[in-house]
Write a structure and sequence with these properties.
With 91 residues, this protein is α+β, with helices and mostly antiparallel strands. The chain contains three helices and four strands, in the order βαβαββα. Strands 2-1-3-4 form a four-stranded mixed sheet. A hairpin with a 2-residue loop joins strand 3 and strand 4.
Length: 91
């Protein structure tokens, strides 16, 4: 399985709306290297429960299908990219 960044959000969350364009940029930048996905916690409560999502925005990083990093709240694009590169083992 390719590395993945999963963005758990709610359309009504102002912080999620702030982070959304940053996630879009990362998706373009890492296209082909990592999967970037969005999960609306309102329409996917089972998945949110499965991963213990308690607040949004929450970002989960997966490598080889295993959760390797959890980031909660509004983060800078640089910080998200640094973490994503870390799981991709890129410099």
């Amino acid at each position: 399985a390719e590395p993945a960044l999963v963005f758990f959000y709610s359309p009504t969350c102002p912080y999620c709306r702030m982070l959304s364009p940053v996630i879009d940029e990362i998706a373009v930048k890492f296209e082909g290297a990592a999967l970037v996905a969005r999960i609306d916690v309102n329409t996917n409560p089972a998945v949110s429960r499965q991963y213990g999502i308690q607040g949004v925005p929450t970002l989960l990083l997966f490598r080889e299908g295993k959760l390797v990093k959890r980031m909660v709240g509004v983060l800078s694009g640089d910080e998200i990219e640094r973490n994503l590169k870390g799981i991709l083992k890129l410099s």
